[in-house]
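name: query_chain
kind: protein
chains: 1
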Amino acid sequence: MARNEGIFNHEFMVIEKSKLAIDDEGDSSKTDLRKLLREYEKLLKTTRRLVKHNDRSEERLNVLAQEAREKSNQLEQLSAQLAKYLSPQVYESIFSGKQKVSLASSRKKLTIFFSDLVGFTQITESLESEDLTAALNYYLDEMSAIALKYGATIDKYIGDAIMIFFGDPESQGIAEDAFRCVSMAVEMQKRLEELTDKWAHFGLQEPFKMRIGINTGFCTVGNFGSENRLDYTVIGAGVNMAARLESAAASGSILLSFDTYNLVKDKISCRESERIKLKGISNPVRTYEVVEAEDRGSVITIKTKNSFMQEQLSGLTKHQIDELSESLTNALDTLRAHAERST
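structure:
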């Protein structure tokens, strides 16, 4: 701006000198030249006003640009903080405009996961709140990292409990969603085993043990609440089933409903557990427990196009094993005889 003003001052000085030079000559023929100088002087003044206005506008624009950058940084910081309160998939779908923030829901077939820590109430009574908070946050952080690795939608934390679902807002297909969910659960249990020695640092006398329930079924998923406060979650009988399975699961186990088992049985080893009576469900339901990696060698599976049989050998007595062996031998003899007749 100072540089521009210097140029204008120089031009006005030239005009004044030109006027004096013309007046000294006293030549009336210089009238046109005087007129031209006046016009140039007017134009120069107008130009200087415009340049000053432009300089002020540029300064104002620079100020506004700086303010915009500061606001953008503030929004980015707030957005990063807000992202911690939402599952990444839900956050992305909202801020990309794929999903409207309104009271709306839809019905989908999802795989629902519930977990909690065994004996957590007793644990809370033996620890100071600061140590308990540190231990619980560490546990939830480890489990959440695994959940996000498998593309899970983390619904909520309820104290020590975790609620997760697969199939919305993103889905890889019903079967693949179920497989990813169970695979995630297996990795969570393995990770908890790896952390056995860690919990003593927080003052726990016994390591954390987790139980997990998983069900696949139709649920209603979407935004629930009021116009002022929304919660993106799932409701329905399928959710209730998963919660009941989690309550019925043994310490350190993963209990599946028949629907989930039917989707993952070709990829994940399971054994059928006893039928159990679940609260709110009239008939006893079939349940399946995921077999730990070290136990899979004691599981035999017979699978054909139209039938499927699986037996956990570690739970059988010698008499039962002998009966099973005889039955399988007879079945094999029958199969060979049938093959010979067919050729």
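note: The CA atoms of residues 112 and 165 lie 4 Å apart.
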